[in-house]
Design a protein that fits this description.
The structure is a homodimer.
Chain A (H helix, E strand, L loop, with lengths): L4 H6 L8 H8 L3 H9 L6 H14 L5 H8 L4 E6 L5 H16 L3 E6 L4 H13 L4 E5 L5 H10 L3 E5 L11 E3 L2 H14 L5 E6 L3 H16 L8 E4 L5 H14 L5 E4 L2 H14 L8 E3 L16 E3 L2 H16 L8 E3 L3 E3 L5
Parallel strand pairs in A: 1-2, 1-3, 3-4, 4-5, 5-11, 6-7, 6-8, 8-9
Antiparallel strand pairs in A: 10-12
Helix pairs in contact in A: 2-3, 2-4, 3-4, 6-13, 7-8, 9-10, 11-12
Chain A binds a DNA duplex through α1, α3 and α5.
DNA sequence: CTGAAAGCGCTTACAG
DNA sequence: CTGAAAGCGCTTACAG
């Protein structure tokens, strides 16, 4: 039959080694090869061995597209992060990607630019690829995004944030941003600072939670004053941090400490202080958040909160891996904590 | 027939809107829908319109896996970069990804960690997905990688580097790293510097080309001395930059300028100089490379070379887009140049 | 310019 | 524990 030129011409061979080739080599049916290779169901160990040998001998590699089409499930994991220009998310991504790749998954990255509409759009696009799982930064999404996540029934782990303590259905790996903000503020209070300003840019949900922690600490100490909240919706940058420092000190000369919502702003403030010869921490204490690269190299070195972002990426990916295997996750979330790192700037 | 329970059970419907649904709605055959939607071959404009209307009405979205299986080509573009921790590559990635996504392609990222073996391994993995195109950092790969790129016949554009002037087959978007190194060194010479050291870490191919440019400039000026080459294979970091500054000045007190192969090292050197109260540029001029975030915020601001990395990512992606459409690219490469940015540190 | 048939390389659902 | 049949949703190759 295969000598029939009519049929031969119809055949669009790709030259690729297929499941059928392995099956023939091993003397079993294709479906047995499929099952043996995926470790699914019980297959006679002897046959498994023969299949493995044949597969290795022929150098067989499964076709991801065929697999995805037949199973309605790809080996892609979508990961959504707000920005690539923020080292925090790059660390998260790097760790998650390494973990997922080791387990045979490909990562598809979506950058939301802190925009809920873009996030929704990206999620829709990624869902077309029927990802095996999703890793999403944060817990605050618009209603459509929430609905998409749920209706897709694709396993999903949220990173960096943590849900309410009694939430047992939302999978998360992160830390209590508000508690971290509280702890850092308490450190500043313990140093005897009286007028502690909070300076934030971007105003993403996590920055806002740090704000809440700062508020709580100041209220507990009886030092809260709404005037001390400096919230700027612009993007974070070193330059903006410098400007905010200058403005705050000009407007409120009695401020003796500033808690910047991230290290970018705080580093910029330290550099601006050097330029303007403002003695840190004598004139004003400076603190940041995240302990990014360079914070320990500043002059003076920056007091900040170390967030375990690489661990969050890795553990988040591992939790997702378990969910994708159908394992139940209980508790649904994992708190990886934080550490206040006291350096010379406070 | 479809009432036959036997057949009905055999059917694994996914509930998805398929090409066939659109075809039925539009009253044409599935293949016509396929052609109309892809804009392939000549299809009666009237039918195209009907197909488009039906497609929109039903909310049809093609299944990427089915498409990939049938056409042996995915809508993935693989992009290989050395590190995610280097802002240079993140900028490259961000720009390339945005351009590709706008054209309907998904980006798969591979991080090589400056390791040729890992690069080869990543390329193999990505090739399994039959990418529509590839974006690869640099031109230096091991033989196996070169062979894989060629034998795969997947369109490929190399970023950041440029091939020999007479090379007409290697597609590149980048800049002449050696000329940039030469220009920066000439600037330092023009400032009257006599003993200009070159300090590099990582020692990747582009750093080495900058070294060549530095050598050429010093030789032309009759100031070359191999002792002035400080090459450290360790990873670049702020801390290492500080150490290199200290070591160089201790070993060679007559050095009056240091050209660091990247801004990370140079920024670290500036911070170390602040700590050690080494006056910059009076005692020693400092220059970096790439003009990363923060270089203009340093004290003094850092003299460096601005590389158009966002443009390289975007133009590289666009060249790839053209190649994937089967367009010839002539010339094969695009030089986006550089700019010496003179600031206070020199 | 349009279409019926076959095929891409897997997995699912059923049966034994 | 194993397999023959059908199907996943597209595109290619051929024909008209």
């Amino acid at each position: 039959m295969s000598d029939n030129p009519q049929l031969a011409r119809r055949h669009r061979s790709t030259g690729r080694i297929t499941l059928a080739d392995v099956a023939q080599e091993a003397g079993v049916s294709p479906i047995t090869v499929s099952r043996a290779l995926r470790g699914e169901r019980a297959v006679d160990p002897l046959l498994v061995e023969r299949v493995l040998a044949a597969s290795t001998k022929l150098g067989y590699v499964p076709d991801p597209a065929a697999r995805a089409l037949a199973s309605q499930r790809s080996n892609h994991v979508a990961i959504l992060i707000p920005k690539l220009s923020n080292a925090l998310f790059v660390d998260l991504l790097d760790a998650a990607q390494q973990t997922l790749r080791a387990a045979g998954f490909q990562t598809l990255i979506g950058v939301t630019h802190y925009d809920e509409e873009q996030e929704e759009q990206l999620l829709r696009e990624h869902l077309l690829h029927r990802p095996a799982g999703m890793l999403i930064t944060g817990l605050n999404h618009n209603a459509a995004t929430q609905a998409l996540i749920e209706s897709s029934r694709v396993p999903c782990v949220h990173l960096m944030d943590l849900p309410a303590a009694d939430d047992t259905s939302t999978h998360c790996v992160g830390l209590r941003q508000d508690q971290a903000g509280l702890a850092l503020t308490q450190h500043l209070l313990a140093q005897g600072r009286k007028r502690i300003a909070f300076a934030a840019a971007q105003l993403d949900p996590r920055a806002i939670q740090r704000l809440y922690g700062w508020r709580t600490a100041l209220k507990q100490a009886g030092q809260y004053d709404p005037e001390l909240e400096h919230l700027n919706p612009a993007s974070s940058s070193l330059a903006l941090g410098g400007q905010m420092l200058t403005n705050i000190l000009a407007q409120q000369p009695d401020v003796d400490a500033i808690f910047f919502c991230n290290d970018d702003l705080a580093q910029g403030a330290l550099l601006a202080a050097l330029r303007s010869q403002i003695p840190i921490p004598q004139r004003v204490a400076i603190a940041g958040f995240n302990d990014l690269t360079g914070s320990d190299q500043m002059l003076p070195p920056l007091t900040t909160v170390r967030t375990p972002r690489a661990a969050i990426g890795r553990e988040g990916a591992e939790m997702l891996l378990r969910l994708m295997q159908g394992q139940e996750q209980s508790p649904a979330w994992l708190d990886l904590g934080f550490e206040v790192v006291v350096r010379g700037s406070s």
